[in-house]
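Discussion board: Methods & Data

I've been asked by a reviewer to show the raw model output for two of the constructs in my manuscript, not just the figures. I'm not sure how much to include, so I'm pasting the format here to get opinions. Each protein appears as its amino acid sequence followed by a line of discrete structure tokens. Is this the kind of thing reviewers expect to see in a supplement, or should I convert it first? Here is construct A:
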Amino acid sequence: MIILQSLFKSFATKQVLRGVDLQIKKGEIVGFLGVNGAGKTTTMRHILGLLRPTEGTVTVDNLDPIAQRMQVVEKIGYLPENNPLPLEMKPQEYLEFIADVKKVDRSVLPQLIQDVAITDVLQKPIEQLSRGYKQRVGLAAALIGEPEILILDEPTSGLDPIEQDRIKDLIKRISKEKLVIFSTHILSEVQDIASRVVIIHDGTIRYDGPKPKGTVDKLFKDIITGKQTEKPAKPTKSKPAKKTVTKPKKTTKK
């Protein structure tokens, strides 16, 4: 479980996070939404132990991502927004390198390569791959070691609709029995994939709950523009009809 309590973060004079409270448990797929600069990436970097909170606490399975970073990193697969792949390497070489760094047996790679569908490009330099294939290589690297937690920062950013669908399907397949947080600006992805929606705006959580009955698009726009979202009316309980008991007429003796 990931727990963020009263999380504040400031860079110089700019306050980016303003008291973020969030709990996410295994089995949830959280669509993390917000406009640019809302605090999405900053929040995720705190979970990874890449940033130290100005105030507040972050725990990952009761571990401190700063003090116990190596233990936390072993639990998390991370795909950053701008995936920093070594362009001169080939996917096969890169994934073998990541497996060695994570101390994972290379025998797991063939199945993983098949799962993310990159068999055809294993021996091509990464710099020659399309953005979609690069994202899949990055996702494969994040999945090495079967992490319990996946943090995906805009995994379909810049992809064409076909590649977006492939990445979405892949996330759905691999996310069973994992804790998944993914940020995106493509609201239909959240509608398709997420089991829970979290919207951050101006450094605070403005919505945290299930997907709405309508569209995520409407919910997001209402939250960001400050409109009140419609709440489903509570069903009125109808009172049970009173039973009328007819008493037998008394017969008078003559």
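Construct B, same format:
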Amino acid sequence: WPTLCCENVNLPKLGYNFFRLVFLPRHSTFLHQAQKPYFREDHFSGGRPPTVSGDQLSGGVRLRSAGSQRPQLLVIGASTGGPHAIAALLRGFERALPVPIVVVQHMAENFVPILAAQLDGLAGMRCHMAVHGERMAAGQVYLAPGDKHLLVASTPAGLELRLSLAPAENFCRPSIDPLLRSVVAALGGAVVAVILTGMGQDGLEGARMVTAAGGTVLAQDESSSAIWGMPGAGAGAGLCHAVLSPKHLAAKVGGLLEELS
């Protein structure tokens, strides 16, 4: 029989809490992760030494070198436990980034504005729900609305956002994979993709495309993840340059933007 898991999404700054029910296959390798405590702040502050990055082996995970292209975009994807992980990542930046940031969080559409409000202002960056046709700007955070895929298009005027009602992928809309496909089509490998905590494998195929195009993929580590499904899938496939807590991921992203600028 499948197992029914209850996902808790907690936004304490706004005094809001809700639950989502998710079915997992009987023999899911992620079931044991559901027993871990959710949203402990020390998990996200990086309590253990970071996993090394580069072409090395660490804890059975083969890591790869960073892409060589100058990043023009940061993509963040998350699901179970994502609101706190995204906030911890953004809070870890010392200042507004010199590139736009697009975020896909698996969440019901009614709650996306609440998450946008919580993320707004972190590291001096404004956050709002993406609007179809909106031109992207550096240091701005664009959050996928519920029940629409978020895509990026290259136009003569610059990067623009697109919203799509195409079918769900990986049982999700918005989904990380179509976003990453669109980013590769628009920018090639000039992207850093960060896959945070969540069930399933959304983002895996998109991460393959990013690395094949010469971009860089980072993932949240197991100890700080509520469920190490999505980040674990990319790490296990050898697609990641580093596997770290959100705090250390922020430092890694900042370093990549400086090194390749």
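Answer (T.O., handling editor elsewhere):
This is acceptable in a supplement if you add a one-line summary per construct. For B, something like: The helical segments are 41-44, 82-91, 112-119, 176-187, 204-212, 230-236, 246-259.
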